[in-house]
Structure formats: structure tokens, C-alpha cells
Amino acid sequence: MPIAVDIDVMLAKRKMSVGELAERVGITPANLAVLKNGRAKAVRFSTLAALCEVLECQPGDLLRWETDGAAGSAPDPAADSTMA
Questions:
Q1: pTM (2 decimals)?
Q2: H or E, element range at 26
């Protein structure tokens, strides 16, 4: 998935456990683990806002876009020299 989740980085910086973060945000540790491990399909803005409030960070500190380089991704039209 091209969106990487860096909650574990912020947890380490804040010296906070997953259980403590889940309790303070108001979600289950299992749901936080799904998000933290990059298996979530979506995240509510209210959850993202609560994570940022508790961790005292910005959404960009928790989420980042990265290329996955996987086969089958959409071709870059700018890279095709035959297109005018």
C-alpha cells in the first residue's frame, strides 16, 4: 500500500505503549494495531485528530505516501515518449 503508517515511530518518541495510546484515543488496542501495522483500509478523521492530539503531532507525522514500485501500477504518461 502506498500509504505508510508511522504510529510506532511516534509511540517510541513519546515513550508510550500501544495500550496507553488506544485507551487515551478511545479505540481498542486491536483496532490500533490494525492501523499501526498498515492493514487498515481507512481511518476516520476524528480518530486521526485524536491520535494527533494525544501524540502532540501533525497528521503528516503519522502518515506518509511512498511509491510501492509494484508491477501493475498505472504507467506514468510523462515517461512515454510516444505520447504527444
A1: 0.77
A2: none
